[in-house]
Amino acid sequence: MGKITGFLEIERQDRSYEPAADRIRHYREFIIPPSEAEVTHQAARCMDCGIPYCHTGCPVNNQIPDWNDLVYRADWVEAAANLHSTNNFPEVTGRICPAPCEAACTLNIIDVPVTIKSIECAIADKAFVEGWVRPQPPEIKTGRRVAVVGSGPAGLAAAQQLARVGHDVHVYEKHAHPGGLLRYGIPDFKMEKYIVERRVAQMQAEGVIFHCNVNVGPDVSIKKLERDYDAVLLAGGAEHPRDLAVPGRELAGVHFAMDFLPQQNRRVSGEALGPVEPILAEGKQVVVIGGGDTGSDCIGTSFRQGAVSVTQLEILPQPPEHENKDLTWPHWPLKFRTSSSQAEGAARDFSVATNRFLGENGEVKELECIRLDSQLKPVPGSEFRIPADLVLLAMGFLHPVQEGMVKELRLDLDQRGNVKANELDYRTSRSKIFAAGDMRRGQSLVVWAIREGRQAAHAIDKFLMGRTDLPR
């Protein structure tokens, strides 16, 4: 490394945020990026640690010490080339990844990891500003045709890799625009949608053809795709939400998070909502059930819509303030975290289960809850009520939607209801059908979806051509 003692001399300084009172007034990204000089300074903290454990924390195998050193030496062009060699969308992961690489950083043993995520984002953003990100169309076409069902991070990554080696790639997306979760699930205040649009434009210039507003199953038969293409990749995600089967679930005002969040994304982009009832938090007491990232996105969106109050309930106990690094490092630790949305004023309660929803005139008005002990068993006599005009269920997803193309193909499923395929060749129980991302592994991170999309592209190219130069 260029600055051997940088980690001893330089304090960690990460990106900052606009004040909560300001940022809840708009849907734009609110992170204040560091200056180029500060990014270079922070990159100097990457130590010559011998065994870079950050590699174990990064699903896409980013060569983190290498591009940190390149940034420190101000060789941004090479840093961008290095970063893109392992990650198709670093500007995405640089914004929304929880950064398991930082948890695995050797410096994290004393709780001051390198600001890997913000450096990654700075490299990617500079690459676009400077015009270094260009289409990479293939020199030779193979004549092979591949259909990709779903344009989330897994589908996009696979499609880009396959197009660049010369295959004729067609992506089928049921919504009006490509992006899947990136466009319709993640709020604009975490990632503005021009981020997705410029990558889609790059992919179109590389030869990828997008078929939007085409729902495979109702609009075009999956069997037809299987007949018409040399390979088909299922990358539709895990869209079957976990429900809460308690009395009162049928009351108006109780909704799944992923019925709520896409509506606001459509409003921001000017896209029509379609034939659905608007779900809005303005003037309401909102309760979010579920303590993960989707729940946090519901909180931030609710505040921006003008919610009177937001309460987030989590069935699990509150995690410890700090992890025991002797036991957890370099693995992702369980510890108490506060997201930017939670910091905007949400009340949080742990070890809470919902017994029933109570309402008037068919509309939800209260939740009856009960406290749980360390074994997740109800504590007798601990019942309490929370006022609520809007309840958002953000308890995760069970598996892909199986009705339609999955059942039509009669694909083998794993014990959790995901499409069964291994991590070596990503092939399903039908020879021409592949599966990757949440469709195969279940609900997971965007960075894992990108990894699986890239690896599935490697497997598909090898299946079609007998060999492949694509990296895994």
Q: What report would you give on this structure?
A:
This protein is α/β, with parallel strands linked by helices. Strands 5-4-3-6-17 form a five-stranded parallel β-sheet, with helices on both faces. Helix content is 33%, strand content 15%.
Number of helices: 19
The major β-sheet equals: 5 strands, parallel
Note poorly predicted spans.
none
| Helix content class | 25-40%
Concise description?
With 472 residues, this protein is α/β, with parallel strands linked by helices. The chain has helices at residues 6-9, 20-23, 36-43, 54-57, 64-72, 76-84, 90-96, 100-104, 116-129, 153-164, 181-184, 194-205, 222-228, 257-269, 293-305, 325-328, 405-409, 438-441, 446-465, and strands spanning 16-17, 31-32, 145-149, 168-172, 209-211, 231-234, 240-241, 254-256, 285-289, 309-313, 347-349, 352-360, 363-371, 384-387, 390-393, 397-399, 433-435. The protein is built from 19 helices and 17 strands.
Produce the secondary structure layout.
Layout (H helix, E strand, L loop, with lengths): L5 H4 L6 E2 L2 H4 L7 E2 L3 H8 L10 H4 L6 H9 L3 H9 L5 H7 L3 H5 L11 H14 L15 E5 L3 H12 L3 E5 L8 H4 L9 H12 L3 E3 L10 H7 L2 E4 L5 E2 L12 E3 H13 L15 E5 L3 H13 L3 E5 L11 H4 L18 E3 L2 E9 L2 E9 L12 E4 L2 E4 L3 E3 L5 H5 L23 E3 L2 H4 L4 H20 L7
Parallel strand pairs: 3-4, 3-6, 4-5, 6-17, 8-15, 9-10, 9-15, 10-11
Antiparallel strand pairs: 1-2, 7-16, 12-13, 13-14
Helix pairs in contact: 3-5, 3-9, 5-6, 6-9, 7-9, 10-19, 14-15
